[in-house]
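G.,

No rush on this.
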Amino acid sequence: MKVLRNLSIVCASLWLAACSTTGGNPAANDPYEATNREIFDFDMRLDRHVLLPTAALYAQVVPEPARDGVHNFLQNLDLPVTFANDLLQGETTRGSETFARFFVNTTFGLGGLFDVATRWGIPNHSEDFGQTLAVWGAGEGPYLVLPFGGPSNPRDFAGNIIDNAFDPTTYIAYNYKFYWSVGRTLVHVIDVRARSASLLQTIERGSVDYYASVRSLYRQNRQNEINNGKVNLENLPEF
């Protein structure tokens, strides 16, 4: 997943460096709103003409059990990153659950193709270094939209880079590693898009301003993830 993330980072750095003025929407923490909207429109065109048709074809051609296996496998690959961030946040109980899920699904779930851990009562959750930075007290910074990457902020932007260091596959030398990284990223994106197609379509149809809706939902969702589902009225983002 590292290759496209790094591409997003390079592109985002270039367009942010080109921003000579601010303004935007202070209440939504979006000083680069004009530029963000341009990038958002680009991402939406890419999604409409490439990603969504690909995801629809994937859902049509690949049987649901096989799609579930791919989803489980990709989710299992991300667990070492979640485990590292659990520990960095001092969440030893959640860390033990993550370790147990990885062990159970990797062994009894045939490398993660089957989610045996959930059937055994071991809950799933995800953590990333952007969340860890938030737990450590780092502010989110201004809202950003990344080319090829979607909604983000400087804290999550930096977190994606560090998470690469927590991924064991980063350090494994094998043939065709570049193609594996690209393939893993593309399959992950297609899997997520196929699973979210109807939900995003509903949100877009019900939105007067789809950009503002995505921004609001992203910030709310990230705050919920940081709080591990616990409501903290003092830290809710303003809209």
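When you get to it, here's the other one too:
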Amino acid sequence: MTFTLATWNINSVRLREGLVARLLSNESPDILCLQECKSPVEKIPMEQFQALGYRYMVARGQKGYNGVAILSKLPIMDAGDKDFAQMGHARHVSARLENGVTIHNCYVPAGGDIPDRTENEKFGQKLDFLTDMREFFRWERPNSAILVGDLNIAPREDDVWDHKSLLKIVSHTPIEVEHFNDVMASGDWVDVTRNDIPNGKLYSWWSYRAADWDSANKGRRLDHIWASKDIAAAAHSSRILRDVRGWEQPSDHVPVFATFDL
């Protein structure tokens, strides 16, 4: 069984319904995982997506904030969710394919602007979320599993436009990277994107604050695709669709793709 999977922080699925439809039409991934849907599940605009062949959806939502959804051409069943850090947010959902592969779709909190939990509650919540993820995958070791999403951390020096400049900026601080790596190690996860593209600058996010995001190119790789070690060798053809950042009224994130032969 071969399938292609994509992950994309859409920053409002209702506002950007047309962009989702455009991606599905142009690229036709078998599975699309969305984060920051900002919609109750019942108001996700599925009619247009179903017309494009995406008959299945597993999602968790809330009004105006957060929200995660897995759209699929392939049959999937709901495999549950976890309320990491007990915030009551819709930030995780999982689905299972007929071949037994479980897909985890995660939206890690951004963490605010100050990288100090004593001064910034949101940063503490982010670290707690990652700690809970670590403990979950330590006790429920993933097998035949894929984890995707906006993890809101650029872990490597070449995952940001300027490593030294961003060491004190939320998303690239040493403590966040340490927590990120601990989650990876707890589940023996493999970074599929970097397994395929081991060298060079890679970004999946460019700030709205940049007057000309393209020319400035001050990006970060915040969006990730991981695979459990037992199936990591089946992953290939990773790519990041940079051009999507230039679509009309875009998300500040772009889709990340990988294909699996399982």
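The two ends are 5 Å apart (CA to CA). Residues 121-139 form the longest helix (19 residues).

Enjoy the weekend,
O.
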